[in-house]
Amino acid sequence: MNDPFLDLFTIIEDRKKSKSKKSYTLSLFKEGEKKIAQKFGEESAELIIDYLKGTKKRTIEEASDLIYHLFVLLSSKKNKLSGHSKRVNSKT
User: pLDDT (tens digit, 9 = 90+) per residue, 15-37?
Assistant: First the structure.
């Protein structure tokens, strides 16, 4: 069974190593931790606003953006997605 979260994280890791000038992901890594944190914060705020006042469609879109930026943030600190499974499972 495919894991879309693992697939996304793998793509982010691959883009981090790429040399493509068109890669948004690579541009975030090049701009550094402050930019990555700023984008994560922006996406968090946008998700909250759409959750409270937006449509279901916009909430899903913003949640997807937040997940992407979370994975970029984790990757920038050399975290592996698998390392978070135990902690997430403990929350359920």
Answer: 999 988 899 999 999 999 999 99
